[in-house]
C-alpha cells in the first residue's frame, strides 16, 4: 500500500469513514459533528502517446505528448471507471458508458447502463467487457451488445484484471467457488467453448491471461498457480487431453503483448520475456534459447506488470511508482513476418540482427508452420546439427503424409503422427515409427491387427536385443516368434516395395494427398 494524497480538513478528528460502492467517494464522521465528503481525482491512464487525467469528478484532460494538444472531456455524471487501450477510451459514469476513439475526442458514442456500478472494464482490439453487479457484458466499440456470458455460481463483485481475460475471440474467467477452474467462452456468442467443459488445473489458480493475436484455433492462455508456477495451454482441445505445460517457476506477475504473442513476467529475481512461448509445443529443448532475461532487483518486492504495449512494459512497484522498460523491437517484427508467411524477410531480419535468440524463435516458428527449409537454416545458425540432419531426412521421404508425420514427430506429437499415417493407409510407416521409438508393443500390435510386417517387427526387436546382449522375455514376442524365421533379405525387399508403392501413390494422386491437414 502507498499514500496517494494527504489532506488535513479543519473538522476535528475523523472517527469513522465509509467508501461508496463504486469506490469513487468517501464519507467521514468528524469530531465537530460534521460529515465530510471526498472524491477520488487525479487518476491517470496512459496508452502510446496519450496521457489522460481525471482532473475533476466529471472532467478528464487528454494530453497528446507528440503535438502537446490538450482536450477536455466533460461528462454529465461523475466518472466511476475508465480504460484506455487499443485506440479507444471507455469511460463509465454512474448512468452511462462513453466510448471515445483516440482519433476523435469530440464525438463519443454514448449508451445507458443497466446498473451504474461498473467494477471492471477490459479491452481487446475489437470489443470491450463491462463487469457490474448484474453480470458480464461484451460490447463492440460501436456500442452494440455482443454477448453476456454466464456460468454457475457467477459472482461479478470479486472479478478483477487478474481473474478475467479478454481477446478478440475468447473470454476467460476464473471460478471463485473452485479456484482450480477457468471458464472459457466464445466472445461473439457468449457460449462455453468447445464441449462446454471448463479448463481444470491440479492446483489453485492465481492469475490468468489470454494471448491477443493469431488464429482462434491457436489461442493460448497462460496462468500462474498458487505455487507460483507459470503454465500455458491451448484454449481449444484437440483430442481428449489438454496439454498444460509449465514454462516458468516463481512467477509473480505476467502480461501478453498487445500486438504479438510475446509473454513477459517477473520470476523470482529476474524479469523474463518469452519471445515465442509456443516453442514448448514445437521443440521443448529450444525454449530456454528463446528467452530474454534481465535482473529485476530494481523493482523491489511484489511488483506488478501494468501493461505491455508495443515494445514497452510498464511495471508498478510496491510503493506505487511506475517503471518503464523497453525490449528489442525485432522479435515483434519477426512475429509479423511469420504471420504473413514472409519467410525470406524473416531470415533476412535474423541475419541482420545476428542474435541467437531470434534464430531460435525462427526455428520454432518455422517448424510450427511446417516450413522445413527455413527451419533448417535457423537450426544451422544456432548449431543444432542433429536437428538439421533430421530435417534433411524428412525432405527425402516419399510422400507428403510421411513428411507431415515426421514433422509431428519432430515436435514430439507421436500419437498425432501415428494417427495421420494410419488414416492415410500408410500402415508400414506407422509400424516403423513405433520401431524407431522402441515402442515395441505398439509396433507388434499394429502389425498383428493389420496382418502385415509382423516379421519386420520381430527382426528389429531381435537385432535390438542382440545389440544389448539380452534375451527375449516378452510373452507376446515369444509367441509370434515361434516357428518364424527372420530373413533380412525378404524384409528389406518388402520395405523397399512399401516405399516404392508410397512414391507411386504420392505421384498418382497429389490433389487428394494435399487435402490432408493436421491440427497440432
From TrEMBL:
The keyword DNA damage does not apply. It comes from the Eukaryota. This is Intraflagellar transport protein 80. Residues 358-504 form the IFT80/172/WDR35 TPR domain. One of its GO terms (biological process) is cilium assembly. One of its GO terms (cellular component) is centrosome. The keyword Lipid biosynthesis does not apply. Keywords: WD repeat. Residues 42-330 form the IFT80 second beta-propeller domain.
Amino acid at each position: 500500500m502507498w499514500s496517494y494524497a494527504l489532506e488535513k480538513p479543519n473538522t476535528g478528528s475523523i472517527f469513522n469513514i465509509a467508501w461508496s460502492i463504486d469506490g469513487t467517494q468517501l464519507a467521514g464522521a468528524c469530531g465537530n459533528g460534521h460529515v465530510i465528503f471526498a472524491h477520488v481525482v487525479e487518476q491517470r491512464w496512459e496508452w502510446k502517446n496519450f496521457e489522460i487525467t481525471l482532473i475533476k469528478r466529471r472532467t478528464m484532460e487528454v494530453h497528446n505528448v507528440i503535438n502537446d494538444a490538450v482536450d477536455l472531456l466533460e461528462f454529465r455524471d461523475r466518472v466511476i471507471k475508465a480504460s484506455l487501450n487499443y485506440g479507444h477510451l471507455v469511460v463509465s459514469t454512474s448512468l452511462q458508458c462513453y466510448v471515445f476513439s483516440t482519433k476523435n475526442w469530440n464525438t463519443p458514442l454514448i449508451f445507458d447502463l443497466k446498473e451504474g456500478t461498473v467494477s471492471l472494464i477490459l479491452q481487446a482490439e475489437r470489443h470491450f467487457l463491462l463487469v457490474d453487479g448484474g453480470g458480464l457484458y461484451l460490447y463492440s466499440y460501436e456500442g452494440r451488445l455482443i454477448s453476456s456470458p454466464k456460468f454457475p455460481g457467477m459472482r461479478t463483485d470479486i472479478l478483477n484484471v487478474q481473474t478475467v481475460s479478454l481477446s478478440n475471440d475468447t473470454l476467460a474467467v476464473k471460478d471463485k467457488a473452485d479456484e482450480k477452474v477457468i471458464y472459457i467462452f466464445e466472445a461473439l456468442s457468449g457460449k462455453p467453448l468447445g464441449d462446454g467443459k471448463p479448463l481444470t488445473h491440479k492446483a489453485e489458480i492465481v492469475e490468468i491471461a489470454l494471448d491477443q493475436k493469431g488464429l482462434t484455433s491457436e489461442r493460448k492462455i497462460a496462468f500462474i498457480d498458487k505455487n507460483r508456477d507459470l503454465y500455458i495451454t491451448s484454449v481449444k482441445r484437440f483430442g481428449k487431453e489438454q496439454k498444460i505445460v509449465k514454462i516458468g517457476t516463481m512467477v509473480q506477475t505476467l502480461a501478453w503483448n498487445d500486438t504479438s504473442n510475446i509473454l513477459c513476467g517477473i520470476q523470482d529475481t529476474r524479469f523474463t520475456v518469452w519471445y515465442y512461448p509456443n516453442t514448448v509445443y514445437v521443440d521443448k529443448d529450444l525454449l530456454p534459447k528463446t528467452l530474454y532475461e534481465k535482473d529485476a532487483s530494481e523493482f523491489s518486492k511484489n511488483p506488478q506488470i501494468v501493461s505491455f504495449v508495443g515494445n514497452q512494459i510498464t511495471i508498478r512497484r510496491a510503493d506505487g511508482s511506475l517503471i518503464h522498460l523497453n525490449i528489442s523491437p525485432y522479435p515483434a517484427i519477426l512475429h509479423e513476418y511469420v504471420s504473413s508467411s514472409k519467410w525470406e524477410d524473416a531470415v533476412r531480419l535474423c541475419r541482420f540482427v545476428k542474435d541467437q535468440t531470434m534464430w531460435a524463435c525462427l526455428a520454432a516458428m518455422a517448424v510450427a508452420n511446417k516450413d522445413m527449409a527455413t527451419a533448417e537454416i535457423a537450426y544451422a545458425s544456432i548449431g543444432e546439427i542433429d536437428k538439421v540432419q533430421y530435417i534433411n531426412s524428412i525432405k527425402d521421404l516419399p510422400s507428403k503424409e510421411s513428411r507431415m508425420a515426421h514433422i509431428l514427430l519432430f515436435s514430439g506429437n507421436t500419437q498425432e503422427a501415428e494417427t495421420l499415417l494410419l488414416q492415410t493407409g500408410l500402415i508400414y510407416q506407422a509400424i516403423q515409427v513405433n520401431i524407431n521409438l522402441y515402442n515395441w508393443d505398439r509396433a507388434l500390435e499394429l502389425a498383428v491387427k493389420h496382418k502385415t510386417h509382423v516379421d519386420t517387427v520381430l527382426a528389429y526387436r531381435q537385432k535390438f536385443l542382440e545389440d544389448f546382449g539380452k534375451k527375449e522375455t516378452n510373452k507376446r514376442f515369444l509367441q509370434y516368434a515361434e516357428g518364424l524365421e527372420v530373413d533380412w533379405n525378404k524384409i528389406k525387399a518388402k520395405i523397399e516395395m512399401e516405399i516404392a508403392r508410397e512414391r507411386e501413390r504420392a505421384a498418382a494422386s497429389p490433389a487428394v494427398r494435399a487435402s490432408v491437414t493436421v491440427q497440432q
